[in-house]
């Protein structure tokens, strides 16, 4: 229920004689639209912040909130997808994120038929094949992981589903003015003695003067530029290919639910298979830009074949297929022939799940190892193949530090861009929205100016380090798995297997990928659960062990030989004993 | 003339501070008829342009403000609930509080408002707030800052303007206001008492401005070795977090001295004291309360110490006392 406000010219009403001379009267404001919060960006993060804000009664009753979005949000509101096609932009919603959406009242507006629980995750090393399995049943501390009797690590759903649910929730609350199909043309600082407020100029000629300006406006955030907040980061030499995959039901006649996510770390980048329904799943494949480009230009059958191979063939064959695909003769038939030849030469049993060619021909009886890899992809949803560059990026601050950047805050991708391998991008943005809304709530209750640095600092304090840990851990994992150097592969494989043995560390790693769900919605910080906090250091430690072995193993590779190797062994075995 | 400064570092709380108390000085230390100290006024006038720099001279005060409001809000809610004669009234209190209008309809005076940090907050919570300060430049800064905020502007409310809050600043002293008929539900004077010349006279003026049944809130610094160490030696001299000369040790006031002051009738026109009983030196919850307020450097924030925390009132503290309905 967007409410459109026309600019009103307000007339100054001079007070009459009832004011004594010694009293100061405050100047009237110009004809700007006056707002308490303007959120730039109507993606899931911006909408989640708006929803979280108006879920608080003091905020709802006292603040005027606007959200500006360049796109037409009616299209999202009226989202009526075909029941058997899926958007290629999907996210894994952790239990913490799901609880947050429940708390702000939007989870009920999410189309539940288009969410799918992940009950298990299998992650393995593309070079050594050592593997970790995360299962929802290992989650001892999760109180709220169950929906409809299914215990889940996380839920897969399309970003559009989240966005639509948030918009419906906002329409029901009606307390946020959504200004869509309007671009932000310019943000300037009002020139006033004592510190001007941000003025947001829009493409339809309005000027929104705001107490607090929130940038939920993505990687190239105009709000971040206005606030003068530097960000640091780099592009990985990697692109992520996304697509919607169709496949037969898992386990064929056994009708095993499609609730396992698979991820294989290849030296070119991780490939992930994320279940959406019993016969559809989503692909996120981080790989070299030239390969991503070649695949995007090819017949979709080429991608299907490559995906099947990427979960099955040994790494050395994947390297050859990579070169093959970049060569002149890369037709689908030639590719299939190449894969067939490689399966034979690797001695892959044609009746095992690791064969691309025979699994589907079986009648109702799956191969015994069917659950260790994803089902065979038979086709790709037309038009669903896309790719995007992968970046690491972190703003120096989440709130404007200088006078020029006063009264600004950043959330989501405007603040941080993460490698998709841990599936945490959207979850981090939702956690930002949660923390910022709680911070605004506390300021309102104490009569504080919500745009002031004093009011906003708790937000930065709550999120900056948390996000940084996740960004750094993900970055390290990417780099750790980008090598085929023998000692590193050996060490990281031992690392993974050690992790698999240690229940507590495993659980911590799972928290990082699946989130914790114990935080109850209570806007007051004192009552916010810290369960996630205590688990994080454990997850971080797990990654440290991995990256530590990486560094040590690099030394080994450089010729320090057996001495260092025995130290690694000692290190790892002592860790295992602990 | 609110005094800034407020001891920046009160994190260390030491129990068992020397207990010596003296009556509040009854006579001006200087031969002036008001309680205002001219040196103090000029000190703060010089600093006035920095009032709203949240990372500058007054950074610690900005951080302290939410905690002061928390105390005021909590105490007023507690008293309102105690007073409520019906469930309906209680509901009304809850409703206003839930809507962020906890102080709706109260007449509130902020004596020594400085740049208006507290006045703005109280006004946002719905109070009809008057801020007074003996420094004209403070009033100018406070007014200018409020003029930036549409909540305090005097434009006609309309669908595109925010709700209007009442906030008024005057260059005046508490003694000036006593001469006028207007009295207030709540009088606050935060970080002021340690800067006036005649604290007993100043308190009498503040007390006089409170309506019967109304509330007086003070915050100040106790006179202990700890407070000297933190507010003067550390904050002013060693760390220069606060402008040197902001505080004078012998002007600090102990909580027990404030309590003693209100155990006697405040003025000759009042027949009974505001505090009628003490238990082990402490007043009852419905008459008065002393709460320590402690800076926690590693968190970078102030904290309201729990009631009765040992040693917590040895440096910065908040004081609340209620005027009897029939005094």
Automatic annotation (TrEMBL), chain A:
Keywords: FAD, Flavoprotein, Membrane, Mitochondrion, Mitochondrion inner membrane, Monooxygenase, Oxidoreductase, Ubiquinone, Ubiquinone biosynthesis. The keyword Cytoplasm does not apply. It is a peripheral membrane protein. Pathway: Cofactor biosynthesis; ubiquinone biosynthesis. Its EC number is 1.14.15.45, 1.14.15.46. One of its GO terms (cellular component) is extrinsic component of mitochondrial inner membrane. It catalyses: a 4-hydroxy-3-(all-trans-polyprenyl)benzoate + 2 reduced [2Fe-2S]-[ferredoxin] + O2 + 2 H(+) = a 3,4-dihydroxy-5-(all-trans-polyprenyl)benzoate + 2 oxidized [2Fe-2S]-[ferredoxin] + H2O; a 2-methoxy-6-(all-trans-polyprenyl)phenol + 2 reduced [2Fe-2S]-[ferredoxin] + O2 + 2 H(+) = a 2-methoxy-6-(all-trans-polyprenyl)benzene-1,4-diol + 2 oxidized [2Fe-2S]-[ferredoxin] + H2O. Its cofactor is FAD. PANTHER family: UBIQUINONE BIOSYNTHESIS MONOOXYGENASE COQ6, MITOCHONDRIAL. FAD-dependent monooxygenase required for two non-consecutive steps during ubiquinone biosynthesis. Required for the C5-ring hydroxylation during ubiquinone biosynthesis by catalyzing the hydroxylation of 4-hydroxy-3-(all-trans-polyprenyl)benzoic acid to 3,4-dihydroxy-5-(all-trans-polyprenyl)benzoic acid. Also acts downstream of coq4, for the C1-hydroxylation during ubiquinone biosynthesis by catalyzing the hydroxylation of 2-methoxy-6-(all-trans-polyprenyl)phenol to 2-methoxy-6-(all-trans-polyprenyl)benzene-1,4-diol. This is Ubiquinone biosynthesis monooxygenase COQ6, mitochondrial. It comes from Rickenella mellea. The gene is COQ6.
From TrEMBL, chain B:
The keyword Methyltransferase applies. GO terms for biological process: methylation. InterPro entries: SAM-dependent_MTases_sf, UbiG_MeTrfase. It comes from Rickenella mellea. This is Ubiquinone biosynthesis O-methyltransferase, mitochondrial. Its main location: mitochondrion. It comes from the Eukaryota. Mg(2+) binds at residues 191, 194-195. The lineage of its organism: Eukaryota, Fungi, Dikarya, Basidiomycota, Agaricomycotina. Its cofactor is Mg(2+). It is found in: Mitochondrion inner membrane. Keywords: Magnesium, Membrane, Metal-binding, Methyltransferase, Mitochondrion, Mitochondrion inner membrane, S-adenosyl-L-methionine, Transferase, Ubiquinone, Ubiquinone biosynthesis. It is a peripheral membrane protein. S-adenosyl-L-methionine binds at residues 68, 112, 133, 190. The keyword Membrane applies. Its EC number is 2.1.1.64, 2.1.1.-, 2.1.1.114. Pathway: Cofactor biosynthesis; ubiquinone biosynthesis. It catalyses: a 3-demethylubiquinol + S-adenosyl-L-methionine = a ubiquinol + S-adenosyl-L-homocysteine + H(+); a 3-demethylubiquinone + S-adenosyl-L-methionine = a ubiquinone + S-adenosyl-L-homocysteine; a 3,4-dihydroxy-5-(all-trans-polyprenyl)benzoate + S-adenosyl-L-methionine = a 4-hydroxy-3-methoxy-5-(all-trans-polyprenyl)benzoate + S-adenosyl-L-homocysteine + H(+). O-methyltransferase required for two non-consecutive steps during ubiquinone biosynthesis. Catalyzes the 2 O-methylation of 3,4-dihydroxy-5-(all-trans-polyprenyl)benzoic acid into 4-hydroxy-3-methoxy-5-(all-trans-polyprenyl)benzoic acid. Also catalyzes the last step of ubiquinone biosynthesis by mediating methylation of 3-demethylubiquinone into ubiquinone. Also able to mediate the methylation of 3-demethylubiquinol into ubiquinol. Belongs to the class I-like SAM-binding methyltransferase superfamily. UbiG/COQ3 family.
């Amino acid at each position: 229920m967007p409410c459109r406000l026309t600019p009103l010219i307000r007339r100054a009403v001079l007070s009459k004689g009832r004011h004594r001379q010694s009293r100061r009267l405050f100047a009237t404001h110009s004809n700007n639209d006056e707002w308490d919060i303007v959120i730039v960006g109507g993606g899931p993060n911006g909408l989640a912040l708006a929803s979280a804000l108006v879920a608080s009664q003091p905020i709802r009753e006292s603040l005027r909130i606007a959200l500006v979005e360049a796109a037409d949000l009616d299209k999202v509101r009226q989202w009526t997808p075909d029941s058997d096609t899926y958007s290629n932009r999907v996210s894994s919603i952790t239990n913490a994120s799901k609880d947050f959406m429940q708390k702000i009242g939007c989870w009920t507006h999410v189309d539940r038929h288009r969410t799918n629980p992940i009950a298990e995750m299998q992650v393995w090393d593309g070079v050594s094949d050592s593997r970790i399995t995360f299962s929802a049943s290992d989650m001892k501390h999760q109180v709220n992981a169950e929906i409809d009797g299914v215990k889940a690590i996380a839920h897969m759903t399309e970003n559009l589903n989240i966005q639509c649910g948030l918009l419906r929730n906002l329409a029901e609350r009606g307390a946020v003015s959504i200004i869509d199909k309007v671009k932000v043309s310019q943000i300037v600082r009002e020139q006033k003695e004592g510190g001007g407020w941000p003025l947001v100029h829009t493409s339809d000629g309005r000027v929104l003067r705001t107490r607090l300006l929130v940038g939920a406006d993505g990687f190239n955030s105009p709000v971040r530029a206005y606030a003068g907040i530097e960000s640091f980061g780099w592009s990985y030499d990697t692109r992520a290919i996304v697509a919607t995959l169709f496949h037969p039901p898992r386990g064929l006649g056994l009708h095993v639910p499609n609730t396992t996510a698979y991820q294989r770390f290849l030296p070119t980048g991780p490939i992930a298979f994320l279940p959406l329904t019993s016969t559809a799943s989503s692909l996120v494949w981080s790989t070299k830009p030239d390969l991503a480009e070649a695949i995007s230009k090819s017949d979709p059958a080429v991608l299907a074949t490559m995906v099947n191979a990427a979960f099955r063939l040994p790494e050395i064959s994947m390297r050859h297929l990579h070169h093959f695909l970049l060569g002149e003769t890369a037709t689908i038939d030639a590719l299939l022939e190449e894969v067939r030849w490689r399966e034979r030469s690797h001695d892959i049993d044609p009746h095992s799940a690791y064969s691309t060619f025979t699994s589907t021909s079986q009648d109702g009886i799956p191969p015994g190892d069917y659950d260790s890899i994803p089902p065979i992809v038979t086709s790709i949803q037309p038009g669903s193949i896309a790719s995007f560059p992968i970046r690491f990026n972190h703003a120096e601050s989440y709130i404007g530090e200088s006078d020029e950047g006063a009264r600004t805050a950043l959330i989501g991708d405007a603040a941080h861009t993460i490698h998709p391998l841990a599936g945490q991008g959207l979850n981090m943005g939702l956690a930002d929205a949660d923390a910022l809304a709680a911070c605004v709530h506390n300021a309102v209750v104490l009569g504080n100016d919500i745009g002031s640095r004093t009011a906003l600092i708790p937000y930065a304090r709550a999120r900056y380090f948390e996000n940084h840990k996740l960004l750094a851990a993900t970055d390290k994992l990417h780099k750790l798995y980008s090598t085929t150097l023998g000692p590193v592969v050996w060490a990281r494989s031992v690392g993974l297997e050690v992790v698999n043995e240690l229940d507590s560390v495993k659980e911590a790693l799972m928290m990082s990928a699946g989130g914790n769900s114990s935080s109850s919605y209570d806007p007051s910080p004192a009552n916010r659960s810290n369960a996630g906090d205590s688990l994080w250091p454990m997850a971080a430690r797990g990654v440290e062990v991995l990256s530590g072995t990486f560094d040590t193993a690099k030394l080994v590779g450089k010729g320090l030989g057996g001495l260092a190797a025995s130290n690694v062994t000692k290190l790892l075995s002592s860790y295992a004993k602990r | 003339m609110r005094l800034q400064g407020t001891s920046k570092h009160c994190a260390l709380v030491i129990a068992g501070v020397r207990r010596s108390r003296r009556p509040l000085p009854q006579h001006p230390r200087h031969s002036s008829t008001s309680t205002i100290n001219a040196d103090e006024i000029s000190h703060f006038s010089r600093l006035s342009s920095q009032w709203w720099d949240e990372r500058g001279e007054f950074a610690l005060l900005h951080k302290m403000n939410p905690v002061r409001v928390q105390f005021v809000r909590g105490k007023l809610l507690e008293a309102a609930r105690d007073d409520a004669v019906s469930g309906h009234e209680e509901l009304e209190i809850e409703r206003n509080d839930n809507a962020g209008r906890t102080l709706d309809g109260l007449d509130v005076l902020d004596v020594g408002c400085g740049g208006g940090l507290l006045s703005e907050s109280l006004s946002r919570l719905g109070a009809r707030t008057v801020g007074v300060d003996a420094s004209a430049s403070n009033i100018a800064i406070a007014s200018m800052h409020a003029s930036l905020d549409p909540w305090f502007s005097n434009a006609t409310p309309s669908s595109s303007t925010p709700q209007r809050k009442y906030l008024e600043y005057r260059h005046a002293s508490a003694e000036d206001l006593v001469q006028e008929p207007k009295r207030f539900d709540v009088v606050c004077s935060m970080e002021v008492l340690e800067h006036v010349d005649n604290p007993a006279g100043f308190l009498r003026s503040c007390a006089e401005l409170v309506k019967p049944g109304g509330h007086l809130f003070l915050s100040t610094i106790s006179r202990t070795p700890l407070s000297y160490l933190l507010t003067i030696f550390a904050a002013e001299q060693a760390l220069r977090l606060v402008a040197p000369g902001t505080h004078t040790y012998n002007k600090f006031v102990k909580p027990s001295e404030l309590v003693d002051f209100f155990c006697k009738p405040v003025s000759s026109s009042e027949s009974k004291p505001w505090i009628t009983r003490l238990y082990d030196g402490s007043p009852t919850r419905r008459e008065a309360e002393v709460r320590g307020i402690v800076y926690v450097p590693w968190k970078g924030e102030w904290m309201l110490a729990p009631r009765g925390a040992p040693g917590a009132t040895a440096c910065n503290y908040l004081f609340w006392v209620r005027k009897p309905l029939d005094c």
